[in-house]
């Protein structure tokens, strides 16, 4: 079965500092990959998705970027964090074959920007 | 794009009673509808899903129904237990992307 790994689990960063969050996927190949952000007590906001290596689609214009250097690796980055970047960041990936529509989520990274 | 509305936003039920959450969607081309359960501080967990060629699906105490004509789908939890307390999200798939409802906070009172 598919497993999504994310790290770090929690992160506290000062405003203006860079960011790199990593997501890796086990148990599947050629998944679609997604980054979501969730503000406290709120729903899921899609930030980026990727249907293949080097292919990134952005849903929300902001100071974040994403990259997919390998089939099962998805990275979320920022050059300079803003206070508004605080939130719970979730990576998700799809299965294969009959589960190609199904998205599985990782455990999330709690980011606090001070 | 797809727009998913979810009701109610909060739901409190007595242990042992049933809970029902309803969602509507706008894009008639959507054909896959998952439900997720999210516990505090954790990632959402897929609990059940349904495709457009099926009207109902059950998994133990959980069931989902889909009405494609009316463009709505519902989650039913029977014999609720304290561990069912969580936030539940519905979603609809279109163009590689899931559109999520705003979530329902379910509290099961012992």
The main β sheet of chain B shows up as: 6 strands, mixed
- Write down the overall geometry of chain A: globular
How much strand content do the residues of chain B show? over 45%
Helicity range of chain B: under 10%
Number of helices of chain B: 0
Class of secondary structure makeup of chain A: mainly beta
List the helices and strands and how they pair.
The complex is a heterodimer of chains A (114) and B (110).
Chain A: E1 3-7, E2 10-13, E3 19-26, E4 33-38, E5 45-52, E6 55-58, E7 64-70, E8 73-78, E9 87-94, E10 103-105, E11 109-113
Parallel strand pairs in A: 2-11
Antiparallel strand pairs in A: 1-3, 3-8, 4-5, 4-9, 5-6, 7-8, 9-10, 9-11
Chain B: E1 4-7, E2 10-14, E3 19-25, E4 32-38, E5 45-51, E6 56-59, E7 62-67, E8 72-77, E9 86-94, E10 97-100, E11 104-109
Parallel strand pairs in B: 2-11
Antiparallel strand pairs in B: 1-3, 3-8, 4-5, 4-9, 6-7, 7-8, 9-10, 9-11
How would you describe this structure to a colleague?
The complex is a heterodimer of chains A (114) and B (110). With 114 residues, chain A is mostly beta strands. In chain A, a hairpin with an 8-residue loop joins strand 9 and strand 10 (103-105). Chain A has strands at 3-7, 10-13, 19-26, 33-38, 45-52, 55-58, 64-70, 73-78, 87-94, 103-105, 109-113. Chain B has 110 residues and is an all-beta fold. Chain B contains no helices and 11 strands. In chain B, strands 2, 4, 5, 9, 10 and 11 form a 6-stranded mixed beta sheet that branches. Chain B has a 5-stranded antiparallel beta sheet with strand order 1-3-8-7-6, with no helix packed on it. In chain B, a hairpin with a 4-residue loop joins strand 7 (62-67) and strand 8. The A-B interface holds A 4, 32, 34, 42-44, 46, 49, 51, 59, 90, 101-108, 110 and B 32, 34, 36, 41-46, 49, 89, 93, 96-98, 100-103.
Supply the key terms.
heterodimer, A: 114 residues, 7-stranded mixed beta sheet, 4-stranded antiparallel beta sheet, B: 110 residues, mainly beta, 6-stranded mixed beta sheet, 11 strands
């Amino acid at each position: 079965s598919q497993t999504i790994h994310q790290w770090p689990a929690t992160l506290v960063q000062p405003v203006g500092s860079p960011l790199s969050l990593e997501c890796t996927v086990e148990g599947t190949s050629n998944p679609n990959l997604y980054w979501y952000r969730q503000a406290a007590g709120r729903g899921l906001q899609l930030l980026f998705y990727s249907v293949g290596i080097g292919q990134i689609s952005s849903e929300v214009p902001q100071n974040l970027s994403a990259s997919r250097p390998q089939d099962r690796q998805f990275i979320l980055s920022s050059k300079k964090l803003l206070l508004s970047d605080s939130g719970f960041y979730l990576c998700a990936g799809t299965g294969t074959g009959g589960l190609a529509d199904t998205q599985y989520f990782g455990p999330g990274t709690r980011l606090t920007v001070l | 794009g797809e727009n998913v509305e979810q009701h109610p936003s909060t739901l409190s039920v007595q242990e042992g009673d049933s809970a029902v959450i309803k969602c509507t969607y706008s894009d008639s081309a959507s054909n896959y509808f998952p439900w997720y359960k999210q516990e505090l501080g954790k990632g959402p967990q897929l609990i059940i899903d349904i495709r457009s060629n099926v009207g109902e699906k059950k998994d133990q105490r959980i069931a989902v129904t889909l009405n494609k004509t009316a463009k709505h789908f519902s989650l039913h939890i029977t014999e609720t237990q304290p561990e069912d307390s969580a936030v539940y999200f519905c979603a609809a798939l279109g163009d590689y992307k899931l559109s999520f409802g705003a979530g329902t906070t379910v509290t099961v009172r012992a």
